[in-house]
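Morning - adenosine-5'-diphosphate inputs below, output right after.
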Amino acid sequence: MLGNVSFTLLSFFYIALLTIVYFSKKRIESKETKLYSYLIITTMIGVCVSLGTYYFMTNMERFPMLNFIFSKAYLGFILVYLYYMTLYVSYISYVKNEKKKFSDYFMFWLITFIFLFLLIFVILLPIEYSVNDKIVYSYGTSVSLVFTITRCVAIIWIFMLIFKKKKTSWKKIMPLIAYIVLGSIISMIQRSHPEMLLSTAMIVFVTILMYFTIENPDVKMIEELNLAKDQADRANKAKTDFLSSMSHEIRTPLNAIDGFSQLILEEKDIKVIKDEARDIMAASQNLLEIVNGILDISKIEADKLEIVNAPYETAKVFNDLVKLTKARIGEKPIELKVNIAKDIPEYLNGDYVRLNQIILNLLTNAAKYTKEGSIEFNVSCVKKNNVCRLIVGVKDTGIGIKKENVDKLFSKFERFDKEKNMTIEGTGLGLAITKKLVDLMNGKIVVDSVYGKGSTFTVAIDQKIVKNIPVKEAKTTTKEKFDIKGKSILIVDDNLINLKVAARLLEGYKVKTECVSSGFDCLKKVEEGNNYDLILMDDMMPKMSGTETFKKLKEKEGFNTPVIALTANAIAGMKENYLKAGFNDYISKPIDKKELERVLKTYLN
Ligand code: ADP
């Protein structure tokens, strides 16, 4: 008799050990490990029920009710075990999306309802016991039903695995094969020896086998930790690379600014001084481009760069680009050929600032990397419904790009032919930004280049049509004259050099300027009754910021002088923030003369 139960007793120790080991270890929760946890608990309970069943069945006369409950509970355990195994099979054969919950799948509910339904049947159908020469075993419709379900479920698993929609390793299928093979052998043995209690031992064996075939929780955890470490290392390296390239890029123009400034101090010839001042200006412009490039890249990488669509006049955008390119070509023997298709709508809707940046970068590169010959600027369009696909081509007869470098062209900080291009300023950020902007605008950019002959960059971007009128001939804007002589301007900045620069830039307009170095002094000046026509206000000042000073000014009765935020804070959304705070306008530092003139024209003219 004991021989019959010894398998179950041994199984109890194994499963108890496995339960302790499995639940005492830290693991990564996945659908698979969760299902396995339920399977272990079910098996553990099942083994206890199995031992109880054995005990009550052999003492049936003393505990008829408990015997009935335990035999039914044992049949229920087999069903619950089959239920979790079926969920496991459906997981390894169909569930592709790890993030989706199991309960989001229809299959989960179907399996659950079918098993619940079967469980009710197993509980309600009769069970009988055979006592024959001290050999006790159960039979009856509920027992036969469970045997039938076991066979049917095994067939369903085979079908699910044959028609699976997911790649599954053989390792994961092994416990199922073991279950089917051992189940068939055991059912044959039990037909002739119904007293042999082998089913529980087989279930425990399959559960233990599964421990070695499910995604190993420890290995998975280590893998994930390694992955996180790799990512952190890579991010750290990228940051170090970025800092070292940046310090190099910034040092180059700074070297020019510093060197030429020292020379100017010692130089007496005004012509030489002017030349060197121009070089300082070019180096500063380069420095500014670097800073703006970094800002753009960081905004793009932090997903902060937004495409702001607004209607714009196409002719104006393209003509301005032509003007800027001509200025960039300067004295070089390069012919600029412009072909802007006549059927481009007069107004389009899109982010013209970014569109301008994309095209200007290509045109500037063409001008930078071409010594002589020509640059073609072609713009055409394909219209469909209310969308206009702008196709912009920039073709040059410049130095060209080697085939092996074309793939690296859009990566940041990549510059080629460094020896040849020694004298050409650049950061290697332009095309990286261009590509990201084109992607953000759902466009495409392609390059075709022959080393030594020239390159063609083509960009295609969809823009919405606002008014379908063919593009007009370019209007040449005559320079408006304006007179603001004698107007008084207060400049507020805590940095003396910045005050000096702003005051000097304003000198040419023959205005009266006054400089103060704090918000407090600004308030004092206004309280003393000084009437200014315009105030240029720095924001980041110690003790009282420009914004706070501005708020205090606004509280003063009768104060209606326009106040312009003048700040080096040029990150995304800053302009909008200043305007929201009530400032009349915004100029970013370093001050662009054109911007300054625009503000003077708007508020003083
Ligand atoms: P930058 O011009 O500031 O160096 P870009 O990202 O705009 O940076 O360009 C990256 C590199 O690609 C340049 O340094 C240059 O070597 C190459 N390149 C870009 N445009 C051209 C072109 N039109 N002709 C030849 N080489 C080019």
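Note: The longest strand covers residues 454-470.

O.
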